[in-house]
Amino acid sequence: MTKQAERLLADPCVRSQAVAVLRETYLADVDQHSLMERLGLAGYESASGVGDVEDQGKEAGPAARRTAALSRIVRDAALAAKVKTLHGDRCQVCGLQLLTRFGTYSEAAHIRGLGRPHNGSDELPNLLVLCPNHHVQFDTLAIYIDTEGIVRSTADGDPLGELRRHPAHQISAAHLRYHRALCGRDTTGHTTQGDSRTSRPMDSTPISSVSER
Ligand SMILES: [Zn+2]
Protein backbone atom coordinates (compact mmCIF):
# COMPACT_ATOMS: atom_id res chain seq x y z
CA MET A 1 0.00 0.00 0.00
CA THR A 2 1.32 3.43 -0.89
CA LYS A 3 1.90 6.06 1.78
CA GLN A 4 -0.88 8.19 0.33
CA ALA A 5 -3.36 5.32 0.40
CA GLU A 6 -2.36 4.54 3.95
CA ARG A 7 -2.93 8.14 4.99
CA LEU A 8 -6.31 8.25 3.26
CA LEU A 9 -7.48 5.03 4.84
CA ALA A 10 -6.65 6.31 8.31
CA ASP A 11 -9.76 8.52 7.97
CA PRO A 12 -12.73 6.40 9.16
CA CYS A 13 -15.08 7.92 6.57
CA VAL A 14 -12.70 7.22 3.72
CA ARG A 15 -12.16 3.68 5.01
CA SER A 16 -15.92 3.03 5.20
CA GLN A 17 -16.41 4.47 1.74
CA ALA A 18 -13.62 2.30 0.36
CA VAL A 19 -15.08 -0.85 1.90
CA ALA A 20 -18.52 0.02 0.50
CA VAL A 21 -17.23 0.68 -3.01
CA LEU A 22 -15.15 -2.52 -3.11
CA ARG A 23 -18.11 -4.51 -1.82
CA GLU A 24 -20.49 -3.01 -4.35
CA THR A 25 -18.10 -3.30 -7.28
CA TYR A 26 -16.69 -6.78 -6.80
CA LEU A 27 -18.64 -8.61 -4.14
CA ALA A 28 -22.27 -7.67 -4.64
CA ASP A 29 -23.53 -11.24 -5.07
CA VAL A 30 -21.96 -12.60 -1.88
CA ASP A 31 -23.66 -12.82 1.51
CA GLN A 32 -22.45 -9.53 2.96
CA HIS A 33 -22.55 -10.43 6.63
CA SER A 34 -20.42 -13.57 6.44
CA LEU A 35 -18.14 -11.98 3.87
CA MET A 36 -17.35 -9.00 6.11
CA GLU A 37 -16.83 -11.33 9.04
CA ARG A 38 -14.36 -13.49 7.07
CA LEU A 39 -12.44 -10.41 5.94
CA GLY A 40 -12.15 -9.12 9.48
CA LEU A 41 -14.43 -6.23 8.52
CA ALA A 42 -17.45 -7.28 10.58
CA GLY A 43 -19.78 -4.38 11.20
CA TYR A 44 -19.15 -2.51 7.94
CA GLU A 45 -22.31 -4.00 6.46
CA SER A 46 -24.56 -2.31 9.00
CA ALA A 47 -24.90 1.14 10.52
CA SER A 48 -25.13 -0.22 14.05
CA GLY A 49 -22.00 -2.38 13.92
CA VAL A 50 -21.09 -5.34 16.08
CA GLY A 51 -21.30 -5.55 19.84
CA ASP A 52 -23.74 -6.10 22.66
CA VAL A 53 -25.68 -3.02 23.49
CA GLU A 54 -27.15 -2.81 26.94
CA ASP A 55 -30.06 -0.58 27.82
CA GLN A 56 -29.33 1.54 30.83
CA GLY A 57 -32.10 1.75 33.40
CA LYS A 58 -33.18 -1.85 33.06
CA GLU A 59 -33.21 -4.01 36.14
CA ALA A 60 -29.71 -5.16 36.98
CA GLY A 61 -28.99 -8.82 36.40
CA PRO A 62 -27.21 -11.22 38.75
CA ALA A 63 -23.65 -10.34 39.78
CA ALA A 64 -21.94 -12.63 37.29
CA ARG A 65 -23.84 -11.09 34.43
CA ARG A 66 -23.06 -7.57 35.62
CA THR A 67 -19.36 -8.39 35.61
CA ALA A 68 -19.65 -9.76 32.11
CA ALA A 69 -21.54 -6.66 31.06
CA LEU A 70 -18.74 -4.25 31.90
CA SER A 71 -17.44 -4.24 28.35
CA ARG A 72 -20.87 -3.80 26.88
CA ILE A 73 -22.00 -0.61 25.29
CA VAL A 74 -24.42 1.32 27.42
CA ARG A 75 -27.35 2.90 25.68
CA ASP A 76 -28.99 5.77 27.49
CA ALA A 77 -32.72 4.96 27.63
CA ALA A 78 -33.58 8.44 28.92
CA LEU A 79 -31.90 10.05 25.91
CA ALA A 80 -33.81 7.79 23.53
CA ALA A 81 -37.06 8.66 25.28
CA LYS A 82 -36.23 12.37 25.08
CA VAL A 83 -35.62 12.44 21.33
CA LYS A 84 -38.74 10.34 20.68
CA THR A 85 -40.81 12.77 22.75
CA LEU A 86 -39.36 15.77 20.85
CA HIS A 87 -40.58 14.26 17.59
CA GLY A 88 -43.86 13.05 19.02
CA ASP A 89 -42.95 9.49 18.02
CA ARG A 90 -43.04 10.52 14.35
CA CYS A 91 -40.55 8.98 11.93
CA GLN A 92 -38.12 11.63 10.65
CA VAL A 93 -38.20 9.98 7.24
CA CYS A 94 -41.89 9.32 6.55
CA GLY A 95 -43.74 11.07 9.39
CA LEU A 96 -45.49 7.90 10.48
CA GLN A 97 -46.65 7.86 14.09
CA LEU A 98 -47.25 4.18 14.70
CA LEU A 99 -50.22 3.47 16.95
CA THR A 100 -50.16 0.55 19.35
CA ARG A 101 -52.72 -0.55 21.92
CA PHE A 102 -50.67 1.27 24.54
CA GLY A 103 -49.86 4.50 22.77
CA THR A 104 -47.57 5.63 19.98
CA TYR A 105 -44.34 3.86 19.07
CA SER A 106 -41.10 4.91 17.41
CA GLU A 107 -37.46 3.88 17.59
CA ALA A 108 -34.32 5.87 18.35
CA ALA A 109 -31.64 5.01 15.80
CA HIS A 110 -27.95 5.81 16.15
CA ILE A 111 -26.57 7.43 13.02
CA ARG A 112 -23.01 6.30 13.74
CA GLY A 113 -23.57 2.98 15.50
CA LEU A 114 -22.32 2.28 19.00
CA GLY A 115 -20.91 -1.10 17.96
CA ARG A 116 -17.56 -1.94 16.42
CA PRO A 117 -15.99 -0.68 14.19
CA HIS A 118 -18.06 2.53 14.27
CA ASN A 119 -17.78 3.27 18.01
CA GLY A 120 -20.30 6.10 17.79
CA SER A 121 -21.38 8.19 20.73
CA ASP A 122 -24.61 7.93 22.68
CA GLU A 123 -25.69 11.56 22.36
CA LEU A 124 -28.61 13.53 20.93
CA PRO A 125 -26.88 14.72 17.71
CA ASN A 126 -26.16 11.07 16.88
CA LEU A 127 -29.81 9.97 17.05
CA LEU A 128 -32.71 9.85 14.63
CA VAL A 129 -36.31 8.97 15.42
CA LEU A 130 -37.51 6.40 12.93
CA CYS A 131 -40.41 4.01 12.34
CA PRO A 132 -39.38 0.32 12.47
CA ASN A 133 -39.27 0.03 8.67
CA HIS A 134 -37.03 3.02 8.15
CA HIS A 135 -34.88 2.00 11.12
CA VAL A 136 -34.17 -1.31 9.40
CA GLN A 137 -33.47 0.42 6.09
CA PHE A 138 -31.15 2.97 7.72
CA ASP A 139 -29.31 0.26 9.63
CA THR A 140 -28.90 -1.99 6.61
CA LEU A 141 -27.64 0.99 4.57
CA ALA A 142 -30.58 0.94 2.15
CA ILE A 143 -31.20 4.65 2.72
CA TYR A 144 -28.96 7.60 3.56
CA ILE A 145 -29.28 11.35 4.13
CA ASP A 146 -27.51 13.63 1.66
CA THR A 147 -25.77 16.92 2.44
CA GLU A 148 -28.99 18.84 1.77
CA GLY A 149 -30.96 16.76 4.24
CA ILE A 150 -32.77 14.71 1.59
CA VAL A 151 -33.33 11.05 2.39
CA ARG A 152 -32.28 8.93 -0.59
CA SER A 153 -32.30 5.32 -1.66
CA THR A 154 -28.73 3.98 -1.70
CA ALA A 155 -29.42 1.77 -4.70
CA ASP A 156 -30.54 4.43 -7.17
CA GLY A 157 -30.30 7.76 -5.35
CA ASP A 158 -34.05 8.33 -5.62
CA PRO A 159 -35.28 10.86 -3.06
CA LEU A 160 -37.74 9.69 -0.42
CA GLY A 161 -38.26 13.20 0.92
CA GLU A 162 -36.68 15.70 3.24
CA LEU A 163 -35.56 14.63 6.70
CA ARG A 164 -38.06 15.98 9.22
CA ARG A 165 -36.46 18.14 11.87
CA HIS A 166 -37.08 19.65 15.28
CA PRO A 167 -35.31 22.89 16.32
CA ALA A 168 -34.25 21.37 19.66
CA HIS A 169 -32.70 18.35 17.95
CA GLN A 170 -29.46 19.28 16.22
CA ILE A 171 -28.15 16.46 14.08
CA SER A 172 -24.43 15.96 13.57
CA ALA A 173 -23.37 16.50 9.96
CA ALA A 174 -20.21 14.51 10.68
CA HIS A 175 -22.23 11.47 11.78
CA LEU A 176 -24.48 11.71 8.71
CA ARG A 177 -21.37 11.84 6.56
CA TYR A 178 -20.01 8.76 8.30
CA HIS A 179 -23.24 6.90 7.55
CA ARG A 180 -23.13 8.03 3.91
CA ALA A 181 -19.59 6.71 3.68
CA LEU A 182 -20.77 3.34 4.99
CA CYS A 183 -23.33 3.38 2.20
CA GLY A 184 -20.56 4.23 -0.30
CA ARG A 185 -22.29 7.53 -0.97
CA ASP A 186 -19.90 10.00 0.62
CA THR A 187 -19.18 12.45 -2.16
CA THR A 188 -17.85 15.27 0.02
CA GLY A 189 -15.16 13.61 2.03
CA HIS A 190 -12.56 12.51 -0.45
CA THR A 191 -10.86 13.84 -3.51
CA THR A 192 -10.08 11.75 -6.54
CA GLN A 193 -6.76 13.45 -7.10
CA GLY A 194 -4.30 15.67 -5.31
CA ASP A 195 -3.81 15.96 -1.59
CA SER A 196 -6.54 14.44 0.56
CA ARG A 197 -6.04 17.22 3.10
CA THR A 198 -7.68 19.68 0.73
CA SER A 199 -11.01 17.88 1.08
CA ARG A 200 -13.75 19.67 2.95
CA PRO A 201 -13.88 19.16 6.70
CA MET A 202 -16.71 16.99 8.00
CA ASP A 203 -18.66 19.79 9.64
CA SER A 204 -18.73 22.20 6.75
CA THR A 205 -21.92 20.76 5.29
CA PRO A 206 -24.93 23.02 5.81
CA ILE A 207 -27.22 20.33 7.17
CA SER A 208 -26.91 21.13 10.88
CA SER A 209 -28.13 24.66 10.31
CA VAL A 210 -31.31 23.62 8.54
CA SER A 211 -34.31 23.41 10.79
CA GLU A 212 -37.94 22.66 10.20
CA ARG A 213 -40.49 25.28 10.84
ZN1 LIG B 1 -40.68 5.85 8.49
UniProtKB/TrEMBL annotation:
All copies of domain HNH nuclease, residue ranges: 91-146
Source organism superkingdom: Bacteria
Region (Disordered), start-end ranges: 185-213
ScoMcrA-like DNA sulfur-binding domain: residues covered: 2-43
Any one Pfam family match given in the protein's UniProt record, by short name: HNH_2
Compositional bias per record (Polar residues), positions renumbered to this chain: 189-213
InterPro entries linked to this entry: DNA-SBD_ScoMcrA (IPR058813), HNH_nuc (IPR003615)
This protein's name: HNH nuclease domain-containing protein
